[in-house]
Design a protein that fits this description.
The protein has 154 residues and is α+β, with helices and mostly antiparallel strands. The protein has six helices and six strands. The strands form two sheets. Strands 1-3-2 form a three-stranded antiparallel beta sheet. The longest helix is centred in the middle third of the chain and has 13 residues. The radius of gyration is 18 Å and the shape is globular.
């Protein structure tokens, strides 16, 4: 796996072509379009990304986009978020150490900073070299919490 240098991940939303070159990937229209779509900051399903990419490249297929996302993920430019019970989501990998909250009611996925700020956020067992830690908190988002509180009978 080729991990992007921090400057490449930070520049992916500003200059996709330079970011691709920085990690040794060929600059192709589908890769540029995918990075541009992801630069909207957020968590994107493949379907949503495909809709965005097809605005500029109408003939891009699901298969092509999956290949693009896998290459971008392997290069460290994109992070795949796998939340139980939901389709995989993708976001630009900014090289920071954040986790995710998932609302069990509306499905909203939000970033939340890591309390320790330093990966891997745990003390792994002796001999284990943790590379990535993914923590997901499940509960109710602020909006759904308010709805729940307002529907409780006095």
């Amino acid at each position: 796996m080729n991990i992007a240098d921090p400057s490449a991940t930070l520049n992916a939303h500003e200059d996709p072509r330079a970011a691709l070159k920085a990690v040794g990937l060929r600059v192709t229209s589908p890769r540029v379009a995918a990075l541009e779509a992801l630069s909207g900051h957020g968590h994107f399903s493949v379907e949503r990304l495909l809709d965005d990419v097809r605005k500029t490249l109408p003939t891009v297929s699901f298969q092509t986009l999956y290949g693009v996302l896998e290459a971008l993920k392997s290069a460290g430019l994109v992070r795949k978020i796998e939340v139980g019970g939901h389709p995989a989501l993708f976001e630009l990998d900014h090289g920071d150490n954040h986790h995710h909250t998932v609302c069990r009611r509306c499905g909203a996925v939000e970033d939340t900073p890591c309390a320790t700020q330093a990966p891997p956020c745990i003390h792994p067992p002796a001999g284990f070299a943790a590379e990535v830690t993914e923590v997901t908190f499940y509960g109710l988002c602020a909006e759904c919490s308010q709805v729940s509180e307002s529907t409780i009978a006095p």
